Amino acid sequence: MSDFCASLWPEEPTPENLQNCGECGLDKHGTRMVWGEGNPEAPIIVLLDNPESRENRENRPFVCGTRQTLQQAAYQAGLKADDLYVTYILKRKPVRAYEKEQTRQVCMGHLKQQLLSKQPQIILCLGNIAVQSFFQDPEKDVKSLRGKMHNVHGYQTTVAYHPLAVRRRPNLWPLFVRDWELAADHYFKQGSFG
Fold first, then answer.
1. Structural domain of residue 141, as residue ranges?
2. 170, burial (CB in 10 Å: exposed 0-12, middle 13-18, buried 19+)
3. What letter would DSSP give residue 9?
4. Contact 98, 25 (CB under 8 A)
5. 120: Cα separation from own chain's centroid
6. Is residue 1 situated within a structural domain?
7. In angstroms, what CA-CA distances link 81 with 60, 76, 139, 153?
8. 5-19 core/surface letters (b: 16 or more CB in 10 A; e: else)
9. Which of 47, 43, 92 is closest to 66 using CA atoms?
10. Positions in the chain short of pLDDT 50
11. Which helix H or strand E contains 84, and what residues bound it?
């Protein structure tokens, strides 16, 4: 684990017609929009709740803890950076209270368009917010859904704990890696070795 070195993945530019989107109200929070990162043509889409910080206080790019943990598990499961594209339910990081249900509904519309254009083979939802939003069921949770594949909106989908939960509770690490291995095994069995 200590030999692992996380890296910055290239960001995909936000579509021009959405760069100044203010429909959900998160534009008032002062955070920038992050459409996604990694390989835009990747067969596996990783879905998180919202982007973490991408620049430090001096405005220099850095790899946050969420991305370090995510990348480490992906590589341990045998996946390469080219296999993955990371995107978000909310495309901006909230920094104060907001109307959660309304905001997620607006942003889910953007995600649906994104998925239609990308047509991933597998979606990996990380954390309860991503799971509840994508499965469109507030009762769903990672604990009850992890360890198997699900068909959600026509996409082969699996779930895992959020990387920040894994960092706070290291005992979740083996389960986290196992869920990444499930996604990797499913991908490799489809004969798509990239």
1. 11-189
2. exposed
3. P
4. yes
5. 13
6. no
7. 22, 12, 32, 25
8. ebeebebbebeeeee
9. 47
10. 1-2, 192-194
11. strand 84-88
How many domains is the chain built from? 1
| The model's pTM | 0.93
pLDDT at position 66? 93
In this prediction, residue 52 carries a pLDDT of 85
Task: Note whether residue 6 is domain-resident.
Answer: no
The confidence score (pLDDT) of residue 193 equals 44
Could you give phi then psi for residue 84, rounded to 5 degrees?
-125, 145
Could you give the CA distance from residue 91 to residue 70 in angstroms, rounded to a whole number?
Answer: 18
Written as six digits, the tokens of 133 are: 């939003």
Task: Give the pLDDT score at 51.
Answer: 92
Nearest C-alpha neighbor of 133 from the set 23, 47, 15: 47
Does the residue 159 lie in any domain? yes
Q: Which two tokens stand for residue 173?
A: 């690490």
Going edge to edge, which strands form the sheet with 122-126? Answer: 11-12, 36-38, 84-88, 44-48, 122-126, 155-160, 150-152
